[in-house]
Amino acid sequence: MTIQSLSTIGYDDGDIDTNTSGNPHIGDLIASRYSRRQTLRGGLSAMTAAVFGGAMLTACDKDDTRRAATVTAGGAVTTSTGKTVTLNGTVTGAAASATVWTQTSGPIVSLANAATTTASFTAPAVTASTVLGFQFTSTSTDGLRSVADTTVTVTPATLDFTAVPKSLADVVAVPSGYQVTVLYRLGDPINGTVGAFANDGTDTTYSARAGDHHDGMSYFGLAASGNAPDAGNSSRGLLVLNHENITQAYLHPNGATSSGGVRPTAEVLKEMECHGVSVIEITRGTGSWSYVATGSLNRRITPFTPTSFSGPVAGSSLLFTAYSPTGVAGRGTINNCANGTMPWNTYLTNEENWAGYFRRDTGDNARRTAAVGAKSTVAFARYGLSERTGNYGWTTAAAPAAGDTRIAKFNATIDPTKAANGIEDFRNEPNQYGWVVEIDPFDAASVPRKRTALGRMNHEGCVVGRTVPGVRPAFYMGDDAQNEYVYKFVSSATWAAADATATNRLAIGDKYLDTGTLYVAKLDADGSGQWLPLVFGQGPLAASNATYAFASQADVLTHARLAGDALGATRMDRPEWTAVNPVNGEMYLTLTNNASRTVATTDAANPRAYTDPKTTGGATNGNANGHIIRFRETGDSSESLTFTWDIYAFGAGSDLNPANINLSNLDATNDFSSPDGLWFARPSNVAGQGTPLMWIETDDGAYTDVTNCMLLAAIPGSVGDGAARTITNSLGGATASQTTRIGKAPGTTLKRFLVGPKECEITGIDSTPDGRAIFVNIQHPGENGSPASITSNWPQSQATGTGSGRPRSATIVITKTDGGIVGL
Description:
There is one protein chain. The protein is mainly β. The chain has eleven helices and 42 strands. It comes from Sphingomonas liriopis. Pfam families: PhoX.
C-alpha cells in the first residue's frame, strides 16, 4: 500500500464529488417544476427561500436558460350530479409538447379528452356537497413541466327542467331541451317478409308485426357485432316489450264485425296475434334511434307461441288440457302488462287481466261442481272467471281448420261427457294463465317458461331487489285488481355474481325462480309489516280450510289469492307496478285507485275515501286518484320477514282539499292521478346512484277532464322521512277519521316531465345504460274512437299537433338535445 503524507491530503471540507450517477441536480428539479417567470412571481420563491435562502434561488435561476410555459386551469365551479363539466386549461409562453388533465381528489370520474387543453366529465352522484380536485399539466418541448390546479364542487342531483304543464293536446310534450323520436309502432314489420303497414284495417300477419297496446318494456345491451349481451352498450340493443291488449275498432276496415253473434275467424286470429310480446333490435345512429326491421333476434311471442311450465305446479293436474295432457307444456301468453329485467339478461312478462278472455257458458258452475267438485267453482269465482261470453266474443268464431284449437282453448266450459281429469277439453285452460313468464331475448329459438313458484294472480310487474352475493334475492309483485295483495318471492338460492354473465340464461332462471318461498304482505297501522309465507300445511293453508281445502303446494300457488285471504293479508287499492331503489333497497308500489274503497273499509295503508269532482264524465268515488306506498325491509335484507312502510305520495288534483285529499301538497307542476308504471333509473349511470331518480307513469280516468296521462320524475326520500297524520274521510253520507303515515311532501323533488296525446296511457319505461336515452310507451291513443270517428291521430300528429290517420300505440325515445343524462 502507498501511504500519502497529511500535507498531500489536506482538509477536503466535503467538497470532493464522489457521486458519478446520472441523477438530476436540485436545480434541474426546480426548473422542471416551475418556470422562471412563475418563480419570480413568488409561487416557488417563498418556499425555496424558506428552505435554502435567497442566494440559493438566485443561483438556480442564473444558470437555467430553459423556459417553461405559464398555465391556468380555470376558476373553481359548482355543478350538480349528472351535469357535464368542461375543464378548460390554457398554455402561454413556451410551446407545449404535451398537456394532460388529471384528477387529484374526490370521487373518481372518467375524464374524456384528458390529453388536451379541454377535458370533460359527468358530475358523479353525491349525497352531499363534494369537492373534486383537478390538475392541468403542460410539458414544454424541452421537457419542462408547468402545472395549475382547480376544483369542482358537486351538489346532489336535482330535477333540472321546467315542469311540463297539463295538456289535452294530441302530442307528446316534453320539457325544453328535450326531443322525442317515434321508434316502434303498431304494425311495424319485424322481418323482411311482410310489407309496410297500411293502417287502414286491412293489414294481417301480426305474428311478424308490432302488436298493439305497448306496455312494460326492458332494454338489453347488445354487443357491437353478433348476438351476445353487452350490458354496457348504449348504442345497440334489444328492446323487449309487452302488447297488453287491443283497440279493436282500428284493427279492421270498419271496426269489428259479426253475423248473428258469430265473429269472423280471420278477425279473431288477427286480434289474438296483436297480443303478446315483441323482441326487436334497435340502434343509435348519428343523433337518432331506429329499430332494425330485419334483426336476427326479432320475434313476436303471441297467444299461440309454445311455452313450458317450471316450478312446483309443473305437471300438476290443475294444468291438464287437451293441448297439454301432462301439464308441463303451454301455449301462449296474453294480457301482458308490466315486466321485470333479470340480472342474468332475461325478461319477465306478466299476465294480468287474462281471466276476461275466457268463455264459460251459463250453467257451467253447476256442471263443473257435479263433475269435479265445488272447489273448482270457488277458485274460478275468486279469479273473476264468471259465466260470460269472453272478451271480444272470440270463441264464437269457427275453428280455422279441423283440429286447430287456437280459438277453442278460450272456451273453459266443461263438457261432462268427457274425462273428469280435464285432458280432453279446456276446462283447466284458465289455470295456464296468470303467471310470470321468463323469456331469453338473446335466443330466438328458446321456449318461454312460466315460473309457477311466483304464484298465479293478475300479475303486474315482477321486480328483483338488490342482489348481494351470498344473500337470497327477493322478487316483488302486485296483483292488479281492487282489494288485492302485494307479494314477495324469496329464492332458495343465494346470489352468485358470476350468474349475471352465464350463457345458459334460462337455466339461471331455473336456479333462482323455481325454488323458494312466496309471501304475501300484511301491513299494520303502526307502520310495521309482515311477510306471511304461502306454504302448504302451514296454518290455514291445509285441507282443513273451510273456505277452500288446499290439497298441495301446487294448489296454494295456483290459487295464491285464496291463500292470501286465508292468511289475512292486507287488501290494497289495486297494487300495480313495483320498483326498487337501487341504493337503499326500498320497494315502491303504485296503488293506482280503488272505486270500491269506502269510509268503513279504509285502513292506515289505504286511508282515503272521497269524491273527486270531475267536471266532465261524472264524479269518481273511493280512492279515485291513487297513491304510492313504499316498504323498507328490516335490516335492509331481501330475506327479511318484516318491514316498515309509509306512503310516498298521494295522487290528487292541486285544487283538492289539502287537509284530507291532497295530502302531499301537490301543485300545478306535479299534481297527478292514478299512478301506474314505476321505475328507478339504472345504477349503471349517475341517475341511479346517490339519490336515484324515480319515474312515475299514469293511467287515469279521474283527471282526464284536466289533462292527458303523464310521466313524472322524482327524487324520493326514504321511509320514515315524514310523520303520522290523521285525516277525515267523507263519502256517501259516511264520515270517519283515519290515521296514516305520510312521507315528506315531495315539493320540487317531483315534477311533471311529459304529457301524452289524447286518450292514452303512459306506460313502460327503461333507459340505455348511460342514461342518455329513455324509452317510453304510449298506449292506446284515441282508444274511445272508431274508424268513422277517430279521436286521436298520434303519432302522425306528433310533428304538427294534427293529422288524419288512425292512432297507433308506439314506443318513443326521449333524449336531451345536448346529449346529457335525461332528467338531471
